[in-house]
Amino acid sequence: MNEQSKATMVAKAPIFISIVLIMILTVTFLSSKIFYSIKSGQAGVRWKRFSGTEIDHIYEEGLNIIMPWDEMFIYNIRIQEISVEMDVLSKTGLKVQLYLSIRYAPEFKLLGVLHQQIGPDYAHTVIIPEIESVLREIIGTMGAEQIYTTGREVIIEAINQAIEQVAQRYINVDDVLIKKIELPKSVAEAIRFKIEQKHLVEAHEFIVEKEKRKQ
């Protein structure tokens, strides 16, 4: 290598070093937008700047690299649980408090469609409103005593209908647990007293009938 070539390389060295440093700084600055670490129990949906949501490819756990102008939305795909309290009205306008626990997870293969059409907050956008709507409708046809005595069975049946509706929105509802159905205290006590009195009357009638058969 002649002296002229060496001199040229030495002269260009600062430029080359500057370019390398700029590239390193750029990658470092944009690393949070380029490199995405998806953990166990998670999956990613990519939104492309020029073509929108990528619905036919779900990004699985591990390191994923995308263009810095795109975005990655990471979802929890494990079964999750959310506690819900809601007030609904009976047929007579009586306030009924329901305490529910909902276990759910997104449909993995349809995660891209879920993101495109509903978004990350799908539990509050779809699951809770759908279940609440069905419960308002069914409890609105029931009286207080019916809710107290057979309400749980009827509500479970209504919830199963809601789960079928939610499944059409790319979400799996694993289970809905009814923790408590609460009527106003005075109403619940009145119903309990009525039921107790009914049982006492039935017991008395049974004893009377038994004594008659002995005679």
Which helices and strands appear, and what pairs or packs with what?
Elements: H1 3-34, E1 35-38, E2 42-48, E3 52-53, E4 62-65, E5 71-76, E6 80-89, E7 95-106, H2 111-117, H3 122-139, H4 144-167, E8 171-182, H5 185-214
Antiparallel strand pairs: 1-4, 2-3, 2-5, 6-7, 7-8
Helix pairs in contact: 3-4
Please, could you describe this protein's structure?
The protein has 215 residues and is an alpha+beta fold. It folds into two domains: 3-76, no CATH class; 80-183, Tetrahydropterin Synthase, Chain A. It is built from five helices and eight strands; from the N terminus they run H-E-E-E-E-E-E-E-H-H-H-E-H. It has helices at residues 3-34, 111-117, 122-139, 144-167, 185-214; strands at 35-38, 42-48, 52-53, 62-65, 71-76, 80-89, 95-106, 171-182. The strands form three sheets. A three-stranded antiparallel beta sheet has the order 3-2-5. Strand 6 (80-89) and strand 7 form a beta hairpin. Helix 3 packs antiparallel against helix 4. The radius of gyration is 32 Å and the shape is rod-shaped. The termini are far apart. The mean pLDDT is 83.
